[in-house]
Amino acid sequence: MNSNDKTRRRCWLTACVCLLLAGVFLTGCKGIPTAGEKQARQQAKTMASVYRPDGRRPALSTLNTNSSLGDFLRFAMLNRPQVEASYYDWLASIERITVERSLPDPRFTFESDITKIVETVMAGLMMDLPGPGKLKARGAVASAESEVKYYVFETGVLQTAFAFKKAYYQLHFLTEKIRVNQQTLELLADIEKIALKQNEVGKVTLQDVLRAQIEQDRMRTEIANLEDSRHPLLAQLKAALGLKAGESDPPWPARFETTPLDLTPDRLLATAFARNPRLKAMEAEVRLAEASIRLATKAKVPDFSAGIEADVRSYPVMVRPSLGVTLPIWRDKIAAEIAAAQAGQRAAESRLSAEQIALAVDLAEKSFMFREASRNLALVQEALLPKARQSLEVARASYLAGKTEFFNLIDAWRTLLDFQLTQVEAQTQRELALAELSLVIAGLPPAQAPILPQASRNAPQPENKNAKKSHAK
Known about the structure:
Layout: H1 3-27, H2 35-51, H3 69-79, H4 81-101, E1 107-114, E2 118-129, H5 134-200, H6 206-228, H7 230-241, H8 265-275, H9 277-297, E3 304-311, E4 318-325, H10 331-400, H11 406-441, H12 465-472
Antiparallel strand pairs: 1-2, 2-3, 3-4
Helix pairs in contact: 2-4, 3-5, 4-5, 5-6, 5-7, 5-9, 5-11, 8-10, 9-10, 9-12, 10-11
């Protein structure tokens, strides 16, 4: 082998080694995180310490009859699969921020000129470079999408708490209804005994006894229906706790707890506009649309590609640099992308306005339901029930004295029963309205709810002047 062949071979090996080292070096590269990505990852770290430490579900306390309502709510929020699914959707959206703001992968290229022999062997690396500002704009869009996903997760947490409270209150007051009906059944048994005694002494006919027995049969059927209605409510309670159908029923808490809510209507509306996660998701969608406009305007900016190839067979080694640039010449396409993004922004703003209006309407409706239930409850407890009990006692005494008909006694009993059931219905309506006002409308989380502190959430992003100008056009 002569000296020229040795030199050529040495150059060929040197070029191959350089390309190999360049490829190995590039595989270990990392991009520069954006501010939104850093904040999202810090939020995910904060949330993981509470909701899924070490990537696993935290140890849940064993529920028993002495467990508080807060213990049941924490179990539901940490255990329900729907909440877990929205949590991992949010984590996935955070990872997409890294994907969107990263440069494309470099390409290893190889080409050769061949006639009867291999004349050239060109090995090289090529790199695509998006235009200035494009990666940052894509990262901003992904960050806004991640913010929307977070508020979907928070909505799921609060909806789970409300779903449990709804089933909890309905089951509690169903038990109250059954208790009222059982007491009424005992009262009807007493009325039947009175009618029997009156019949034995010839004061009334057997018809009064039969009527008392008919009312008892109706009441037994009503109690059986109420007992049967417990099963779907219990299924709803288990679903809210994230328990499967085959798992044992949860214990029933011995102590009943109401929903505290010490806010005036004005403060409640202000709190709802500041905290409601559905509203926050809509605001995040507006910011997403604004980021999409900024990204669409970057379509006017060309993309670049750069690379280098080396002919390892030539001596000296021939190096072939290359540079490419896209030509964004399709102005109608660019205009359509910007117009579509602007239309998306208007749609997001309209949805936000619609949600604000709907939130105010929901607040007004639920506040009315709460006030109505409170008034009805006060009326029944303070006036109607005492008078109905007194009326029944008067009717009973009059019937025993033969001064009134059996129908009057039954009518007094039915009036008392109606008022007792009205009391239970008013209590149920009041507690459900309070729970919905605090959780679904105002967005006030229960204690130990796995959500981000208010201070650590994404603040509204400043508007982009260029985007506003393009929107005005």
